[in-house]
Here is the input.
Amino acid sequence: MIEVEGTAALIPEPAGREALRQADAARLKAEHDREFAAFAEDSYHTVERILRAECPDREVVEDALNEAYLHGRVQWHKLRDYAKPIGWVIVTARYKIRKDRHRRQREAAVAPEDLPPTPQPDIADVWEAQEALRSWLHQLPARQAEVFQMDREGFSNPEIARLLGLTENSVRSYKVAARRRLRELAEEAGYPGPDGGRRQGGSRGSR
Here is the structure.
């Protein structure tokens, strides 16, 4: 048997180096898996609310979210360095929704679905109020609804503009228009107006 002395004895065999490389890769993958799981848990419902402001079909939104997060997991080694990875998920899911919508319209050759009806007055609790707001958002132009919901989720005007491909002036205009129309719908549904009075059928009351 040949004995090796000195530093040469410390150099791992090729098989040993490969084992170390695989162990390092496994540790890195496990770390990325934990990071992505935490990111997905923290961001999922925020992205869902933003997407459902534009698309009322929960199943379509969930499919788009699942696909976006699957792609996000594959790309996490890049996305983890983004200032806001959630923006990438939003853009990817929106693309999937619109692609699916266009496909369905081509197949059915019919107009988009009718908007949901305005909710009844006398909202009883917070959950119903949230559902009412979602219904009203679906009565806005899609871009106004998207901008309004992203603003509610804490995105700044420059961030919204970048993610949606708009100018900041357009973002501000969409926000103003969305708030004005939502206020009208709320008053028509019996919510208090700016003066604190309830308006049943707001179009019949004084403005």
Remarks:
- Strands lie at 189-192, 198-200.
- The CA atoms of residues 117 and 135 lie 8 Å apart.
- The mean pLDDT is 78.
